[in-house]
Here is the input.
Amino acid sequence: MDTQTLNSALLEHSKELKDFLDYPIFFDGLLTFSASPAVDELCQELLQTLEFGRKRTDLRVAVLKAILANLHHAYDLKAPVAVSRDKNAYTNQGRYLADYCTYAITISVVNSLIDGGWVHYKSGYFFDEERKARCSRIWPTDRLIELFDKYLNNNAQHTDGLLIYFPYRENVVLKDKEKRLIDYLDYRALDHFPQGRRA
Here is the structure.
């Protein structure tokens, strides 16, 4: 069963939908796409329809690529992507993390994809008395699957090594003698973030 047929079946039969939602791929902010003209074209077509505003657009594009990479990986496995709407899931993750995947930016990109009709969405829940919780689930609509097919799946010359992990890195905080933060460039991140950043 292809994923488009799967989408139709899921929306029509609650049991199939429940089974599908029970086995998600959890969103991994370090999973992204390698540099590729096909990926750039895919993102550009999406960006024409998404309401991002002008604030921190470079970071939103980086998060968009991470979300699309997760959706594409899950699409191949016929699974949804679990995305937490809990702010605590985006903080205190230790020394190694994809710092561009903040709560505000990640959820704003997810909401834009939902509002634009690019992903299906099933909200999560939390039952305090029973201490049960489930992250929200997203998976590509037929509309997004068509873009995957157009730019990625039917472009074999562009898809070798398409999915990569953003390299783990240790945040280094530089301060002067007065203990003021010093801005610096992280050259390993220049492909993703053309501007300097503060650790």
